[in-house]
Amino acid sequence: MSTQTADHTDIRATNLAAVLGHLRREAPCSRAAIAAGTGLNKATVTSIVGDLLERRLVRETQQTQNHVGRPATLLVLDGSAYATIGLEVGARGLTALGCDAAGEQILRWHRAGPGVDAGPAKTIAAVVALARRAITTVQSSGRQVLGITVGVPGLVNRDGAVVLAAGLGWTDVPLRAELAAALGRPDIPVTVDNDASLGVLAEHLYGPYAGTANLVQLTGDTGVGAGIIADGRPLAGHLGYVGEIGHLRLVPDGPACGCGRRGCLEALASLPAILEQVDGSIDDDPQHQLETLIRRADADDAAVAKVLAEAGTHLGHGIAALVNILNPEVVLLGGAYALLAGHLAPAIDKALREASIAPDAGGCTVTASTFPHTATPLGATAHALTPLTRGRLPARS
Amino acid sequence: MSTQTADHTDIRATNLAAVLGHLRREAPCSRAAIAAGTGLNKATVTSIVGDLLERRLVRETQQTQNHVGRPATLLVLDGSAYATIGLEVGARGLTALGCDAAGEQILRWHRAGPGVDAGPAKTIAAVVALARRAITTVQSSGRQVLGITVGVPGLVNRDGAVVLAAGLGWTDVPLRAELAAALGRPDIPVTVDNDASLGVLAEHLYGPYAGTANLVQLTGDTGVGAGIIADGRPLAGHLGYVGEIGHLRLVPDGPACGCGRRGCLEALASLPAILEQVDGSIDDDPQHQLETLIRRADADDAAVAKVLAEAGTHLGHGIAALVNILNPEVVLLGGAYALLAGHLAPAIDKALREASIAPDAGGCTVTASTFPHTATPLGATAHALTPLTRGRLPARS
Q: Could you name the domain of life of the organism this protein comes from (chains A, B) (predicted)?
């Protein structure tokens, strides 16, 4: 009989997701309109709306519909009683973002370090400390925390373990399990995902290209990775290892890559590779080093221009592989690439158009992300809402 | 009010698709079970089932369910009154396949030529002649033809125009429109798609890896292309140009490719490239030439083994790009690659494992397709069923 029960829970969740989806697209709307729009019967809709009202996920308005017939009480979504927390672990530090369930930002913090060489244990301790403070802040604003999602620049499997994060020097770190244990809050689900996969979620929901069905975001702050929305949905693949464009071999016997191979896109055109080509090494303060790079580029420094043009050509070839395989409508340059986009774009466009098989690069536009600093944690706050958007209601607080 | 009507038609189609989907997974089942499984109310289910019975897409059985309570009449799908026709335009000739709506094969024909140099007009005439004969054969078996889908080795846009098919020497051929006009059967929808995209559909529905959520099929008979199922759905991209892995540049300044670039995977490891490396040229009868190649490979001919090992290495690097970007669970070697799989596989596996960033190539298995000759037309018959599976009922015959 347990199968029977599970099935009924699934149906309830599917129906609840359909009601929430209808409200997201059409609100304000009546119960009758939800029933007509979803094909669910009115008793089911009334029962689901009751659950949503009780949890303050929807509220009734006094508006009436502008058509002939009896005025109906209308419903609108209300995300103000709930929040999620998104965190990014990067080579340049930790970022935390808190948003309510409607996407309104509640908090945004950045912490420098722990550095790339700190190792997983120190980083996990720093993430947990930041997450605890964020939980306290969100709760003191009267909101219930629905979940925490953490973005990492590396291969993350479906259990939230970091299989490989070359830029952080991590291998086989069971990050989700260790964070959850250290946090000690079984009421707050913790998930871990790839930073680029989370970043493209933010663009797909909140950016100027929101809703673009075939959208890619490319970042190169630590390694080079692509987050992919394909045919309207985030791409995940068999084990979760998608978008690893950084290890496309562009130059046989090219410069050594952190992965142990040679001539990878990442070794040629990641931010660390660019900084090393310009300055000969990576500083203790890469943030300051990046700012100097941008200043020199903006001042038409010839040496910097040459490095950026070469990096742009390599990025164009990497993006051409994405274009030939996925045919995206838009490729967004994220992170530091967004800040350097004006200098990278001409070489990217030229190489992309030369190396794409489809005319006009398959209609692809390459442009800068509008969230160069927060795409990953913002996408993480949206990702932590997944159980709710799939129809799993939060526990009653 | 037309929007309102369109909305209601959409809802009816969505609900009909849900009922068909439930029947496909669960049949035999009762109307009540369909209502419970889909969340639709019983009156809606009864009305939809009525439409399906009237069109002989489902039938009632006398079976009763094995549980306590009143016996219910059960429903099963019945595809025997309808058929679709799939056609493949290849460098080696034309193939036609007819299947009923349950996937049972009704006819399978192969015609040699028109050759690669015949041009679009002659090829379109040959396709139309073959399609007409197939329609007559299907109709004389008492079935209604629901649609015709044609697979082409090239870039096909969403209007069914072939933007570029380098292997056929075609540019900007409005194939769907010209086929439909020449066929003169407005009651039978004609669609055109990329051959590899159709081939992987056949594997996803009928092959030993049917249902694999992340599945790629690679073919190289004319150009080199990949058909992609990602997270359970065929990948289409912005304009329909996905899987063009053949023009990944593997060897800067390598051999000239038909696309005008150098060192593309296609120029190194397509079937024509392999035949040319072995024999110095492509025969008038490439089918016979391929059979000779296979015989020599099976007899451990050293020159052939060397060419196939090199081609396998290049294919392994091409597949690594797919693996790094898409993380498929299975990559199937289709067409001639399937017939040569035993000889290609060791070099493919070695190069793939070296060039993939994820451990163990992200869990990817590379193996031979079981439909080396018919994947594309078989996938095309399934593709022509798309309107029905999306809930658009056929016209009453």
A: Bacteria
Quickly tell me which residue has 């369930």 as its tokens: A101
- Please compute, for residue A55, the number of CA atoms within 13 A of its CA located in the half-sphere on the CB side: 20
B32 touches chain A (CB under 8 A): no
Chain A CB contacts of B213 below 8 Å? 238
Under a CB-based contact definition with an 8 Å cutoff, are residues A247 and A257 in contact? yes
B254 touches chain A (CB under 8 A): no
**CA–CA separation, B106 and B108 (whole Å):** 7
Beta carbons within 10 angstroms of residue A368's beta carbon: 17
Task: Please give the average pLDDT of every successive group of 10 residues along chain A, which has 397 residues.
Answer: 49 88 88 89 92 90 63 84 94 90 91 79 94 96 95 94 90 96 95 96 94 96 94 95 95 90 95 93 83 95 96 98 98 96 97 95 96 95 90 77
H-helix segments, B151-253: 175-183, 195-206
DSSP line for A82-130: EEEEEEEEETTEEEEEEEETTS-EEEEEEE----GGG-HHHHHHHHHHH
Going by C-beta distance under 8 Å and a sequence separation of 6 or more, which residues neighbour residue B31?
B42, B45, B46, B49, B72, B73, B75
Task: Give the span between the Cα atoms of B345 and B51, in whole angstroms.
Answer: 50
Q: Do B231 and A249 touch (CB under 8 A)?
A: no
Q: Which residues of B touch A238 (CB under 8 A)?
A: 213-214, 327-329, 362-364
Residue A365, H or E segment: strand A365-368
Our CA angle for B199, B200, B205, nearest 5°, is: 105
Q: Report pLDDT digits (tens) over B272-283.
A: 999 999 988 887
Amino acid at position B169, single letter: G
Asked if A240 and A152 touch (Cβ cutoff 8 Å), the reply is: no
Contact B104, B79 (CB under 8 A): yes
Range in B85-94, B107-116, B229-238 with the lowest mean pLDDT: B107-116
Separation between Cα atoms, residue B73 and residue B117, nearest integer Å: 58
Whole-number CA gyration radius for chain A: 23
Tokens matching residue A253: 């016997």
Which contiguous run of DSSP H or E holds residue B89?
strand B82-90
Going from the N-terminus, what domains does chain B have, and what CATH number goes with each?
2-77 (1.10.10.10), 82-198+377-389 (3.30.420.40), 208-370 (3.30.420.40)
A258 lies within 8 A of chain B by CB: no
Is A11 touching B (CB cutoff 8 A)? Answer: yes
Burial label, B353 (beta-carbon count in 10 A; 0-12, 13-18, 19+): middle
Amino acid at B335: G
Residue B219 has pLDDT above 70, yes or no: yes
Is A238–B327 a contact, with Cβ atoms under 8 angstroms apart? yes
Q: Does A362 touch chain B (CB under 8 A)?
A: yes
What is d(CA A367, CA A203) in angstroms, rounded to the nearest whole number? 12
**pLDDT (0 to 100) of residue A1:** 31
User: Cβ B14–A39 below 8 Å, yes or no?
Assistant: yes
Mean pLDDT within B257-279: 93
Q: Looking at residue B2, what is its pLDDT? A: 34
Residue B102 φ/ψ, nearest 5 degrees: -100, 0
| Complex confidence, ipTM | 0.90
Residue A165 CA to its chain's centroid (Å) = 17
Contact B358 A241 (CB under 8 A): yes
Q: Which amino acid is at B103?
A: G
Lowest average pLDDT, out of A65-69, A293-297, B100-104, B131-135, goes to: A65-69
- All residues of chain B having their beta carbon less than 8 Å from the beta carbon of residue A366 are none
**CA–CA distance, A18 with B331 (Å, rounded to integer):** 35
The CA distance from A251 to B250, in Å, is 9
Q: What are phi and psi of A353, to 5 degrees?
A: -65, -35
